[in-house]
Amino acid sequence: MTQKMLSLASVFTIEARDYVHFSVDAATLATIRNVILGLCIGILLASLYMLYQNLVPGAIVRAILRAEAHTSETAKTLGELGLDKNPLYRFELRHNAMLKKIVLCASAQKSNEDESTDDAAENAAQQERFYITEEAKYRAELRFDKKGNGVLGLVLTAVLTVVLAIMLIKLTPVVLGLVDNLLK
Fold this sequence. Notes:
Strand order of the largest sheet: 1-2
Largest sheet: 2 strands, antiparallel
Distance between the termini: 46 Å
Order of helices and strands: HHHHHHEHEHH
């Protein structure tokens, strides 16, 4: 197991070489490697976030558009949209700034006086009605269209990003050698 870990670590190690016109120490090579790996991790996180945006906020927008809820009178609750089971939908409606610009909330109905505060808040949250105005419909369709990369795209991006990281790490000594030759 340790042997495999060492061979895997060597894939992400930049080969040290001697250059005529400048010197590169181990710390500099480690920094270059960390920058490359950081960029690749950033690409992976961005891809994961795009998938999440497509699956969660995108599902809310597409459900509202399918229900043709374009006014406060035709607004629908999450239950009516079939989205009441997943708490992420409610979280996104409360915290996603882009979603707040597109999806509007119709006034929740007043709850009974005899309900406790927690029960009233939960009941009001369940009865919130959401809609997208006709003016925002086009922007919502463009921003949250289902077309795009799904889980397969995420896996493909992950594989290609790992390959990119390995290639950049292995080509770094070659690029440094070219720079050294240009400085003659």
